[in-house]
Amino acid sequence: MPKDSTDAAFSTSVQKLAEKLEINAQTGLSANEVKIRLEAHGPNRLRRQKKKSAWTILAHQFSGIIVWLLTAAAVISIVLGDIAEGIAIAFVLILNSAIGFFTELKAARSMEALMRIAQVRTRVRRDGEVRMIDAHELVPGDVVVLEAGDVVTADIRLSEASNLQADESVLTGESAPVTKNTEPVGKNAALGDRLSMAFKGTAITQGAGEGIVTATGMETELGRISDLAQSAQGEVAPLERRLDKLGHRLVWLTLALAALTIGAGILRGHDVAIMVQTGVALAVAAVPEGLAVVATLSLARGMWRMSQRNALITRLSSVETLGATTVILTDKTGTLTENRMTVVRYLLAEGDIDIDDDGEDATKAPEPDSPLDWAMRIGALCNNAEIGDGSDDGQSGDPMEIALLSVADGLGASRKGLLDDTPQVKEHAFDPDTKMMATVHKTANGHLFAIKGAPEAVIDVCTHVLEQDGSQKMDDALRQRWTDRNADAAQDGLRLLALAKKEGVPKDADPYESLTLVGLVCFLDPVREDVPDAIKACRAAGVRVIMLTGDHAATAETIARKASLGDGDMKVIESGEIAGLDPENISEDMRARIMEADVFARVSPETKLTLVSLFQDAGHVVAMTGDGVNDAPALKKADIGIAMGKRGTQVAQEAAHMVLQDDAFETIIAAMRQGRVIFDNIRKFVVYLMSCNVSEVLVVGLAVGAGLPTPLLPLQILFLNLVTDVFPAFALGLGKGDENVMTKPPRDPTEAIVDRPRWILIGILGASITIATLGAFAAALFLLSLETGPAVTVAFLTLALAQLWNVFNVRDHDSGLLRNEVVKNGYVWAAIALCLGLIGLALWFPPLADLLGLPSPGRAGLVLGVTASLVPLVLGQGWVWLAEPSDRDLIEQT
Length: 894
Fold this sequence. Notes:
With 894 residues, the chain is α/β, with parallel strands linked by helices. It is 48% helix and 16% strand. Helix 9 (238-267) runs antiparallel to helix 10. It is elongated, with a radius of gyration of 36 Å.
């Protein structure tokens, strides 16, 4: 059998396909032929992705340069005798590695959920008999028998379809079952339009059918998606890239500062051993080991806060990535909409009647025997669905039929009550040829026929139209008006059914002859109530929201407008225009159109993946939402993949970085706000840590270079590095952030954690602390005439307190002097109180004071140290004042 014999099977007639596959559809394949084809095509299984070993994943956790720096810092601290410091750093390393290991291990196993789809049995006709076999034994050319409740185990070209419907949401993302038939479709038909096919992994919800297997295993549509998901490379989180870049800079900075200090000390005649020890201590001080501690704990707390808002994060660094998001590519069904069909309008002879969300007429209740009353009754009678108590768990059947029952029930016309008055005696099941369904009910005047179906089909067989005062004969002009009304509503993105009736006839009469048209009923999957405001919040935050859907363009545009997408001039692109495009070889005109689009309709998994790549190539940080297997490749590729928790498939959830437990779009906004706050907090404590560490290096380096005694001893440096680094920095990391953070545009995705203005700020703050500390040290030596030991204590006290007050210098530049996110942070005040206590212990607890080499400087020395420590706070606030003149109005308001 030629490899291309099943290409575009959906556009080929069943007879031609059978000839190409060399099979007899009545008898199926022989056992010998099955064996030959199984050897040629292999088992009907999805290829398993090569697993990463646990050891490989564990080793990956120790590949970053920050990890190497921290490891060196831990070793050096232990060598220098600071066991507590070494243990603290080692603990951070273990914590980081454990979190990374378990989240990466879970992601590496994500595609295993796909494999379980194939672990079922299926009915197949072979050697003229129908038998049950394991699904992995299917081969191209097998004749498969399908019934309601079956999971389709291969791609199948349908040869028979009796009222056959399939749930294809796993592939297309659209919740409404698709009615199948046996007619070929166009070669360029999108996946959702291939009505002559049943696809692997989908489910038969209604009816029965047969078909010829056209593809198995990795050749199926599900297999292609699996291959895309396995080959899609997950993006490195922006925070990871920035921390790695910062780490590389710190390596060279650390080595340079340590070498300069050691060299200057030796040239000035200091003891070589002491200078080497001091240089190593400064190297440890220059590496902000607190960065990893605070970053990990800040991100972990962000994860906890998000979980309180129904957003579960599966990768720690993804917390921050959310805050950098510039584009959200969102699924429609269930994310922007409620994932349920709702009756929104009746088109009747007297006009259009809109129905609100509670199933009530927006203007009036229906009068008995009015067209609206008949429309409600016909919709409830010609129906096979169940709504139970109205809850999702009690509902079963076609979503449109459930919607018809719900609206009738809401207006007091329950199906049970109607059937009590007009018992059903017969049903004519939906026929794909006539595109109609009918039920027959016994009445006092004979029988009532209730009919519903495709508008064009029902309108064609109607001879009358029901009006308020009776029925009117349907002429050609009137028939055309109803046809136009149907077309106009469909153009608005609504799905429609026609309702008709026939009364006073025998129960065996032709159900589709001489009908009276009651009206057309319009359905829509309504937009979630919270979505328009959430999308407006995104726009205020400078984040674009773009809808990706398997629906047709008209339906997609209607939903997009109701969801407040776009800026009025809605730009919609059908995926056929971009299918097969190579992101690296795309015209600038097409690229510009894609970047400006608000909606992409009829999208395939490949299209989603292409769009994610195109937006990433344009410099965007891309968030992608999804719930089906078809979304998994794009979820994995996106900077932040967001899966639905309620209705999302396991494959989608495991490929994503975040899972929404409530499937609510506004939860993304809450999580995005938290991500922005976390990045701002990380920036604050990086500036704080680096300015403190720079001051320690400069204090020792400049003093040694100037020929002064060493103002800080190695153990004192390590003590300060542990106390004043970790606790205030951690407090900054726990801040709730600026209340207006979501009214600002997203930061530049390429922007470093420490950009040029912040390096300048680090230098100014570090220099301020250095000046104050060296000034106090010199004053203690030359003005107070203290010995070197007590003078060192003055320098230690000045540096320690100045670093504590420095926490107030990292407030946002557009915040007030006394009312800002740092001052309002209770954790900051708690950290200052704790650090003051630890500094007091270092000065006045004899064993610790002796260990650190801190003899008492006397009252004058203490006053000098405390006073000098306030200088950097004044200078830091002065810099904010000068750097941002516009802040004066804000400060005056406080």
